[in-house]
Structures are given as C-alpha cells and as structure tokens.
Amino acid sequence: MQLINPVKSPSFFQKIQWVANPVRYMETAVKEYPDIFSARIIGFGGNLIFVNHPQALQEILTNDRKKFAAPGGVNKLLQPLLGDYSVVMLEGDRHKKRRQLVMPSFHGERMLNYGKLIRNITEKTISNLPHNQPFLARNAMQEISLQVIIEAVFGLHEGERCQQLKRGLTTMLDLFRSPLSSSFLFFPWLQKDLGAWSPWGKFVRDRSAIDRVIYKEIAERRSLPDPNRVDILSLLMSAQDEEGNPMTDQELRDELMTMLFAGHETTATAMAWALYWTHHHPEVRHKILQELDTLGESPDPMSIFRLPYLTAVCNETLRIHPVAMLTFPRVVREPVELLGHKLEPGTNIVGCMYLVHQREDLYPQPKQFKPERFLERQFSPYEFIPFGAGARRCIGDALAQFEMKLVLATTLSHYQLALADNQPETPQRRGITLAPARGVKMVITGERVRPESQLTMART
Ligand code: HEM
Q1: Does residue 122's CB lie within 6 angstroms of at least one atom of ligand 1?
Q2: Nearest ligand 1 atom to alpha carbon 145
Q3: In ligand 1, which atom is closest to the CA atom of 401?
C-alpha cells in the first residue's frame, strides 16, 4: 500500500522524536505536507495519518461509525491508567450508552451547582499560597481541578478519603510529568515492575493505593445506598445493561479513574496557560478585569461564563495550547477518498488540533496570543477544535470551560499576581498532552481592590 505523504525518517527515530519533542515533530512534518501526512509513530512501523485540514476533519469526525469508526481498542496507550472498561476503551453501542449515562453530570443544571464549588475551592487554594514567594501555577491549578472533579465524581469535599485520592493521583501522575518519563506510556517494554524503587514499580503501587480507596468507596455505597446522592458514582451504580445487570466493581473503578484523570489533568494545564498569558500580556489581564468589574461586587457564575472578552481569552488559550494535541484515533471502515488521497480500510487517522490551530490561513501570526481573533470572527467546530468532535468529543468540555473562566475570574479579581520567571514558557510533553515546561512560576504580590471600592473608601 502506498503511504500518503510519509514523514521520511526511520520509524524508531520518528517515535523518539514524537515522544521527546512533539511540537518540533509536527511542525517539521507540516512544512513538507501542509494538510495531511503519515507518521510512523505507533508500534514498530505502524502508520498514523495526521490531518489538520478543517473540511477533511469534518468528514472524518462527523462520519464516525460509518466511513470512519471511533474504536476503543486503538486507545491502548491509556490502558495502564484507565483499565479495559473505561468509556475511552469501549466502542459501538456500549460506548454510546456509557456516554449518555455520564454526560448529564457535566451539563445543564448540574453545572450550575459546580459554579459555587469552583469559586470556593479557588479562593481557598489561592489564599493558602504564600505572598511574595514563587509558586508553580500548574500545581496550584491542579489542586483546584482535582478537588472539583473529586467532588463531581464522588461528592466528597473533605476528609481522609478525599485527601488520599488527591495525594495518590498527584503522585501517580507525576510519573508522566516530563517527556522522558512519558516514554513509559509509549514504549510498553519499559513497563516493568522492578520493585518499589523502579519508576514503573512505583506507578503500579501508587495505582493500587488509589484503587483501594476507590473500591472501598464502592463497597460502602453498595452496602449503604443513598438515593439522594447525585454524584457520578451514584449515577453509574444505578445503571443497568440490557439484561438488567449493574456495572461490576471493575467497570466502576475504570470509569471513575477515567473521570478523575481526564477531568483534572487537562483542565489544570489549560488554566496554568491562561494565567501565563494574562500575565505575559498585562493589557489582557487589564481588559479582563475591566469587563469583570462591570458585573459588580459578587457576580453570579453564569454571568461570568457569558463574558465575551473572558471567553475570547480562554478560547485563545485553548487555541494556542490545545493541551490534547490529537483526537483519539479513528479507523477507516470502507475505501474512501480524503483530500485527493485514497484511504484503505483499517487505516488509522487522527485529527491534529495542534496543527489546525497553527494554520496561518485561519489564524494569522499563529504564535501570537491575540484574544481579539475570537471577537472578530466565528470559527467552525473544525477550525477551533480543542475538545475534538463527533462520537468521542470530550465529555467534560462544558465543565472545563466553566472552570477555566471562574478560576481565572476569581483569581484575578482578588489577587495581584506576576510572572516570577523572565524566560518565556514553552510547551512540553506531559503524558499524552502538552503542558508548560516549567510549570508557570508566579508570585502573589498582594490583594486586589476593585476600583469602585477604592472610590468608596476615598469618599468615606
Ligand atoms: C481543557 C480541558 C480539556 C481538554 C482540552 C480536553 C480534550 C479532550 C479531547 C481532545 C478528547 C478527544 C476527543 C476526540 O477524540 O474527538 C477528549 C475526550 C474525553 N474527555 Fe476531555 N478534555 C478536557 C477536559 C475534560 C474534563 C473536565 C473531563 C471530565 C470528565 C473530560 C473527560 C473526557 C472523556 C471521558 C473523554 C473520552 C470520550 C470518549 O471516549 O467518548 N475531559 N477530551
């Protein structure tokens, strides 16, 4: 079979490059082949087609399940973290049903309840940070997003079990913090448990510790069911398949781990980038504050969510750093033509949001942070695509965007912050995502007083 626009280096080197420096890998390949190219980065010699042309993406992602399937088996990379029964691994009808079950937890009325929670957690977390001493925004944001998702998934907001989950997840995911250590996900032969001091051995033990906490919670809920609980675990426990069977403990564990993992890592990174850009360009921060101040002393979360400039800043953050570089793979089901190339059944294909968001024809001067783009023009769901699209579109997109806006608004309106690092931040691999390489070092220089309150104080 003839390869479409193949990247020309041996597959092992391609894979190393892809793991070590994905941005350079993608930017080099796209210079040669602007819209579509074949990367040899899966297994040894396996091909993955990267697409960044909006119309082609629309065809691939809206055709899910017909010409292009969205199977779970190809997401094996995440199996050690999420297990075999996560929504990410399911396919076909089971996948669709699982999505339908959990989606309401991240939309509509449930979202309104998260508003107050997000603000309280943000205030508490930021107020615990020392003033005039550097801290890493990525870590602070992770603390917030982890607490929010634990509350959404288990309805737990404090106590020993909540602390165990927070500590356990943070420690376990630390393994994938750098490109080198992310190799454990990409090279399965590195996944060797050589005792508690070996990296994979430590990961396996950390994972077991989290599993114990999750299974304990499941057992308690089974013995003492509470029909009034509205958290995701309660929802999953009340679900039944066609034969009337409830989900097994293993299925529940895998889904809970998925929500915990997918629900906080990405959002924490996006919020850290948002803090970075709003302080790298003080005029952006100033404009956000001006807009926020029009809402009065304590605005309700939905009014904050609807603010146009704040929305543009969050969109531009997700545009320039889409966090997830790629959609999950789709697989060609029947012979199909895409951008003039013939694709055979069985071909693996991904939407590359990183490269879509870097297209000069859509986003002139793409390396520059310009929120105004989103005020001046509307982008289609295949031009601005941080959450993917179609059958596997992100389940938590609304929660993530709500959280980004509320955390940014709460932090900026109460505190004066500054970047504590003169070097620009750069994106670096963190597991399967891109995150700020140095974690965005910042410092709190004081509390912020709203201009109106300043005037009132001056008058009295
Ligand atoms: C800024 C934050 C986030 C980003 C950038 C992001 C991005 C993505 C992307 C790109 C996908 C794959 C879409 C596709 O293949 O078409 C995805 C899937 C998914 N996301 Fe998110 N996500 C974020 C936050 C969240 C949150 C808060 C949750 C909450 C639980 C979540 C849960 C999931 C799940 C469960 C899937 C798998 C869906 C499936 O397999 O059907 N994500 N996300």
Answers
A1: no
A2: 27
A3: 1
Of 99, 103, 94, 51, which is closest to residue 73 (Cα–Cα)? 94
* Ligand 1 neighbour 442 (Cβ under 6 A): no
Asked if residue 98 belongs to a domain, the reply is: yes
100, 117 contact by CB (below 8 A): no
Q: Is 87 in the pocket of ligand 1 (CB under 6 A)?
A: yes
Tell me the C-alpha distance between 448 and 83, whole Å. 45
**5 Cβ closer than 6 Å to some ligand 1 atom:** no
Tokens 């389940």 map to which residue? 395
How many A from CA of 196 to the centre of ligand 1? 31
Q: What is the pLDDT of residues 293-338, one digit of tens each?
A: 999 888 999 999 999 999 999 999 999 999 999 999 999 999 999 9
Pocket flag, ligand 1, residue 267 (CB < 6 Å): yes
397 Cα to the center of ligand 1, angstroms: 7
**Strands 348-351 and 46-51, how do they pair?**
parallel
Query: Distance between CA atoms of 44 and 35, rounded to whole angstroms?
Result: 24
* Number of domains observed in the structure of the chain: 1
* Residue 374's CATH number: 1.10.630.10
pLDDT of residue 282: 95
Q: Which atom of ligand 1 is nearest to the CA of 269?
A: 1
Are the C-beta atoms of 281 and 258 separated by less than 8 Å?
no
Smallest CA-to-CA distance from 406 within 295, 319, 323 is with 295
- List, for residues 68-104, the tens digit of each pLDDT value: 888 887 778 889 989 999 999 998 888 999 998 888 8
CA of 268 to the centre of ligand 1 (A): 13
- Is 4 part of any domain? no
Residue 2 lies in a domain: no
Domain of 218 in residue numbering reads as 11-459
Q: Answer whether residue 1 is part of any domain.
A: no
DSSP 360-373: TTTSSSTTS--TTH
Q: Rounded CA gap, 31 and 372, in Å?
A: 27
Nearest protein Cα to ligand 1, atom 3 = 266
